[in-house]
Amino acid sequence: MQNPLRSEAEAFRFLIVSIGGAAIIVGAAYANTWLGVAAAVVVVGGIARWYWRQPSPQPPRLEVREEAPHPHRILVIANETVGGRPLREEVERRAAERPTEILVIAPALNSPVRHWVSDEDEARAAAQERVQASVARLAETGVTVRGEVGDAEPLQAIEDALRTFGADEIVLSTHPEGRSHWLEQGLVEEARRRFAVPITHVVVDLDAEREEVR
Questions:
Q1: Most exposed of 53, 103, 107, 167 (fewest Cβ within 10 Å)?
Q2: How far, in Å, are 74, 86, 163 from residue 189 at the CA level?
Q3: For residue 102, which of 86, 82, 85, 84 has the smallest C-alpha distance?
Q4: 86-121: per-residue pLDDT in tens?
Q5: What residues are paired with 107 via a beta bridge?
Q6: ∠134-135-140 over CA atoms, to 5°?
Q7: Which of 148, 183, 142, 181 is nearest to 163 (CA)?
Q8: Taking a C-beta distance cutoff of 8 angstroms, is the pair 160, 151 a contact?
Q9: What is the pLDDT of residues 31-79, one digit of tens each?
Q10: E strands of the chain, at which residues?
């Protein structure tokens, strides 16, 4: 049962009405017993009717604030093809569908001899240049994008990136079949088996793009 006495003023008014009703009952009973009984019925009935007709207090309204949607995160893995047009168009298309954050990772690929002697400076510098160029092109579309040089092993580069960048999907770019070491090594299939994130494979033919420019 809801309490209609929602404030001190209403409680005070109820007290005054009750005292007044009691005075009427006492005065009527003093004059005549049955008149007092009748007065008591009328007064109590009136107070009860007033009590039950009071509106129930409304619960306070709670303001629900809608949180900003979590941006969709795309992890891009590419090396020499990082600046290719098909990759850029694929990423731009996906970023246009919703607020998006993009992280571009270029594994610092190196020759076996240089890797064996721990000489990776040249490979990392080349990868860094490609990443910066790719990030600059993607940033022109207005999306939030940054780039990093990753581990020379692509699968390890993906794993490292996922530790700090909770990607919703991965876009993995390679050269065409027959010219891609990553495809020869079964990188796409192995990445899909190892990581529980949707992976899109994009083929970039840099030779064909150069011919179009010519």
A1: 53
A2: 19, 20, 21
A3: 82
A4: 999 999 999 888 899 999 999 887 644 344 445 567
A5: 150
A6: 105
A7: 148
A8: yes
A9: 677 666 676 667 666 666 666 665 555 555 655 555 556 899 999 999 8
A10: 72-77, 100-107, 144-150, 169-174, 199-203
**Two tokens, residue 96:** 């246009």
User: And the tokens for 12?
Assistant: 């005070």
130: confidence class by pLDDT, cuts 50, 70, 90:
confident
Strand partners, 146: 103
Residues 78 and 87: beta-carbon distance below 8 Å = yes
Tell me the C-alpha distance between 132 and 174, whole Å.
Answer: 18
How far is 34 from 13, CA to CA, in rounded Å? 28
Let me know if 173 is exposed, middle or buried by CB neighbors in 10 A (0-12, 13-18, 19+): buried
What DSSP string runs through 23-55?
HHHHHHHHH-HHHHHHHHHHHHHHHHHHHHHSP
Beta carbons of 175 and 81 less than 8 angstroms apart = yes
| Rounded alpha-carbon distances, angstroms, from residue 190 to 54, 184, 185, 195, 206 | 71, 11, 9, 9, 24
Distance CA 187, CA 184 (A): 8
User: Residue 19 to residues 24, 40, 47: CA-CA distances in angstroms?
Assistant: 9, 12, 11
CB 77 within 8 A of CB 127: no
How many residues are there in the chain? 214
